[in-house]
Amino acid sequence: MLYYALVFLVVALIAGALGFGGVAGAATGIAQILFFLFLVLLLISLVLGLFRRT
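^ that's the sequence the OP posted. Answer follows.
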C-alpha cells in the first residue's frame, strides 16, 4: 500500500511539473488517502501485536 502511495506521489509530481493541475491534484489526494490508510493499518497491527505477546 505504501508502494502505491509513493507511485501516486511521483505521478502527481510529474503531472504538476508538466502543467496538468487536475491530474496532479487527484493523484495527490489518492496518495494522501493511501498513506494515511497505511499509517492506520500499521498502528492497528502494532497494537494487536503487543496484545498478542502477553
